[in-house]
Amino acid sequence: MTDINKILDVKPNIIKPSQGKVLVAEPFVGDYYFKRSVILLAEHNEEGSYGMIFNKPLYVKLNELITDFPKFDADLFLGGPVKTDSLFYIHKFQEVDDSIKISEDLYWGGNLDNIKELIALNKLNKENIRFFIGYSGWSPKQLNTELRENSWVVTRTKSDILLNEPPNDIWKRIVLGLGEDYAHWINFPINPDWN
Known about the structure:
Blueprint: H1 4-8, E1 22-25, E2 38-45, E3 48-53, E4 57-61, H2 62-65, E5 75-78, E6 82-91, E7 100-101, E8 107-108, H3 112-120, E9 129-138, H4 142-148, E10 152-155, H5 159-164, H6 167-177, H7 180-183
Parallel strand pairs: 5-9
Antiparallel strand pairs: 1-2, 1-10, 2-3, 3-9, 4-5, 6-8, 6-9, 7-8
């Protein structure tokens, strides 16, 4: 993999990965799933890491795939390449039974009946919950290896950027927030062969 820090003369990761932090793909990660992706880490420990890609909409409505779900007018997202036959969700409601706190105001999963009820009551909407097919996962130490290879930058961001920013703008917005050492990333072509 390309050592982007040497090519671009930027600083290495200074924030350690942990639950609630965000992974920002360097501009030359060429994988379909991870190209210019922004991933919220739901877990990172000695057993491995997993999270959800927040900027890969599938342009399919949840109700188009799950017919017994309350009406929910929001796109489904591709969370990653693992378990793409399963539904996952991240939301802002600590009241959902069995949900796991990821950050100050974001929660992973929880009781699906609670989720359906809150949607039916119009308390959950696309500004405070996101549904995903699949998730992104790393075996023990795999993510640390990818960080050493400079595939990712670890940072923090506000939940409003993840949930409310247009998906196609999230990567650019967070890269610009990393500062001038990274801002020129947004000028690289999506396909390096176009350069």
